[in-house]
Amino acid sequence: VQLQASGGGLVQPGGSLRLSCSASGSISRFAAISWYRQAPGMSREGVAHISSDGTINYANSVKGRFTISRDNVKNTVYLQMNSLNSEDTAVYYCFAPVYNHWGQGTQVTVSS
């Protein structure tokens, strides 16, 4: 069971990034996947979730700016992040709740 998060980096306010969460091993390509983030000194918070049937939920703080999607062929879940601001700076993790498995995290820094 492995989740590999990637795509983080440094972006200016108002910019965009796309994170990827690639699943391998015994993780079903239809497994529910969540994105969480943790800013310095803060607790980890849920950002977006896509269930096995495709139902999607977002945290209020990212609604209208972030889009979660999946490519079942590639067994990858994406998080498209637009209109980024400094409050989005955090380490972003993907999580497979059925497997109780976390990816390693990818740093997103929004700064001018």
Write a brief caption for the model.
With 112 residues, this protein is mainly beta.
What do you see in this structure?
With 112 residues, the protein is mainly beta. It has strands at residues 2-6, 9-11, 17-24, 33-38, 45-50, 56-58, 66-71, 76-81, 90-96, 101-102, 106-110. The strands form two sheets. Strands 2, 4, 5, 6, 9, 10 and 11 form a seven-stranded mixed β-sheet that branches. Strand 9 (90-96) and strand 10 (101-102) form a beta hairpin. It is globular and about 40 Å long.
Describe the secondary-structure layout.
Layout: E1 2-6, E2 9-11, E3 17-24, E4 33-38, E5 45-50, E6 56-58, E7 66-71, E8 76-81, E9 90-96, E10 101-102, E11 106-110
Parallel strand pairs: 2-11
Antiparallel strand pairs: 1-3, 3-8, 4-5, 4-9, 5-6, 7-8, 9-10, 9-11
The percent range for helix content is under 10%
- The termini sit apart by 37 Å
Calculate Rg over CA atoms: 13 Å
Q: Approximately how much beta-strand content do the residues carry?
A: over 45%
Shape: globular
Low-confidence stretches: none
Compute the average pLDDT. Answer: 95
- Oligomeric state of the chains in view: single chain
Major beta sheet summary: 7 strands, mixed
Specify the number of helices: 0
Q: What is the number of beta strands?
A: 11
